[in-house]
Amino acid sequence: MEIQRQIKVLIEKYRIFPSDKLGQNYLINLQAIDYIVQLINPDKNKSYIEIGPGFLQLTNPIAEKAKEIVAIEKDKRFEDFYKEFEKTNIKIIFSDALDFDLINSEAHEIYGNIPYYISSELIIKIARSLNIERTVLLLQEEYAKRILSKKDSKDYSSITVLVDFFFNKKFIKTFPSNFFYPKPSVNSSLIELNRKEIYKDIDIQDFLNLVRVSFGMRRKKLYNNLKQKFKENAIKEAMLNADISLDVRAENLDVSQYINLYRKIFDEK
Fold first, then answer.
1. Rounded to a whole number, what is the largest CA-CA distance in the chain?
2. Cis bond upstream, residue 53 (ω within 30)
3. 204-266 is classed in which CATH architecture?
4. Is pLDDT of 269 > 70?
5. How far apart are CA 61 and CA 221, in angstroms?
6. How confident is the model at residue 268 (pLDDT cuts 50, 70, 90)?
């Protein structure tokens, strides 16, 4: 039975109709599933975290080659389904992924097909969980463009800078919308994030706040955004010391320039 038909049968059997609120669009293309499994390249000595296992389309083939899968599912309608399809090395946890404790997990890799509405929060949560070394995510194509964009482009945003601070990023592949059920209105992109060595002299929360304030009002110059949060003279001096023009906008700086600016602001406080 083809996978789309299997999922439709399971939806009817367990009455788990896809929820728009939860952003449920199940991956139903077998080639795409095989491709992701090969990319993750599961290892019998490694544990993995999966966000949103759904009907276990990805979970099962990865679990066959992994030590353990900790699968985080928010939708409790899946309880009966999971009881029927229990596997010893798949641990289902009913939780919002944004509430789950990643830091104390044994796993160092995480993957999932991520709903748009939690994308930024989840990526920042993963970024701050320094034990997570590798992340493979399926994201809405337009959102993935923001993650992957370069400075001076319209897609460049605070999440781009934050991802660049924590990770080496890589575009892998785009999957068309008909690879999912129900079919969404947009394509999805597969990306990979690999942890960079952390900057020990930088307070993560202060850096996040600096970047968010910088992009607070996109049409404003960076200097005008920053002086809403910091003392005007201190910002002017820090920008000049960092060799950053007072006329630039937030999207004109790359992550190395934000790191330099952070140091000029916070090291001289």
1. 68
2. no
3. Orthogonal Bundle (1.10)
4. no
5. 49
6. low
Backbone torsions φ then ψ of 72, nearest 5 degrees: -100, 115
Please state the domain extents for the chain: 3-195, 204-266
Contact (Cβ atoms closer than 8 angstroms) between residue 180 and residue 18: no
pLDDT at residue 86 in the model: 84
Enumerate the β-bridge partners of residue 13.
none
The 10s digit of each residue's pLDDT in 63-116 is: 999 999 999 999 999 999 999 988 899 999 999 999 999 999 999 999 999 999
Residues 6+ apart with CB under 8 A from 156: 146, 149, 150, 251
Is pLDDT above 60 for 19? yes
The helix, strand and coil proportions of the chain, stated in percent and rounded to the nearest 5, come to: 40, 20, 40
Among residues 47, 191, 146, 150, the alpha carbon closest in space to that of 105 is found at 47
Dihedrals phi, psi of 222, to nearest 5 degrees: -55, -45
Three-state DSSP class for residue 189:
strand
- Fold agreement between 3-195 and 204-266: no
Give the number of residues written for the chain. Answer: 269
**Residue 199: both structure tokens together:** 């900057």
Residue 1: its pLDDT value, please? 53
In this structure, are strands 134-140 and 109-113 parallel, antiparallel, or unpaired? parallel
Name the nearest CA neighbour of 70 among 87, 91, 85: 91
Q: How far apart are CA 207 and CA 205, in angstroms?
A: 5
CA separation for the pair 144, 194 (Å, rounded): 15
Out of 3.40.50.1370, 3.30.450.20, 3.30.360.10, 3.40.50.150, which CATH number does the structure's domain 3-195 have?
3.40.50.150
Separation in Å, CA 102 to CA 68, 72, 219:
15, 11, 36
Closest CA relative to residue 61, chosen from 85, 30, 92, 37: 37
